[in-house]
């Protein structure tokens, strides 16, 4: 089997009008990524930076929330209020412990299971610090591209834009649920606008409708995508195909890859779906040369245990044990078809970027925006439901999802309109 052939990633200068080609523009040479500690969100920002050609010229900052214990009850609050309440709780806790025992020095209330709040290798996001970076290097390196993703990054990112509007171009990924004029560009999946559809209006009680956002259709600040942004492109798949050649090239074909996520509030499932998945894989394995199964870090143990128990002894099936190196990229490069659980927009988007057959397991259990996402993919012919009656040797194809490249193209266009250009 040959690695998948995708279009080459966009050129860093793609979409730049000719009038800017000879110097009538300001050049963006650096990027700052503001993350929230969740791989699914941060991967979207890094994917866009990569598509713009600035991956080697970016710095990652992270907005961190306290975790563990009472913090699991506070994570729905705005991050500034969450941190303030947690600080107060820690002080009260320390004071009470001090009264109870003055003989020993007390450690602070643990904020995270087995660790501190942040990661020492990642810089804590601070709007004033990033603004200073933008101002100090503006003359030499031009404006600073800031890419942020996730709810917790909104206040920091918008503060940076407010304090240094002429020296920063701000892209916010995922709908910020606030005034869009605070951002230069907002990148969000079209299913984020599901609350405006007639179906959603029927599902939401009338007294709650005024609290459902977004309340307005997308405006000129918004770029809509089908799925999630990511770092999977032609170059990444070509590299993975080479890296994993010795392990995957000898495998009997076709190779079916099964990626299993974990239940969420809008896609609930448990051992029942795991048992059904095992039955379906057993039914189709006759038409497969090989089956490779992997779990995500969100997969419940009760789900993975059932799949291991039912399928591990099948000679055609290999289940990744979680030890490094992670074969995920090798799976994308060498797989002939994919089965992905319906809970993960990211894993589905990445599989659909290959142009190979993608079957989704459990989409009928999804609700709200996630159900709308699956409906859009089916209508576009990108995915099919996994029923256990498929002949995996019969391939089918579609135009690969190329959201990241399309968003990068749009960023180039907006920058060019303002006399800006990305130059790695």
UniProtKB/TrEMBL annotation:
GO terms for cellular component: mitochondrial outer membrane. Transmembrane segments: none annotated. GO terms for biological process: mitochondrial fission. It holds the Pfam family Mito_fiss_Elm1. This is Mitochondrial fission protein ELM1. It comes from Populus deltoides (Eastern poplar). The lineage of its organism: Eukaryota, Viridiplantae, Streptophyta, Embryophyta, Tracheophyta.
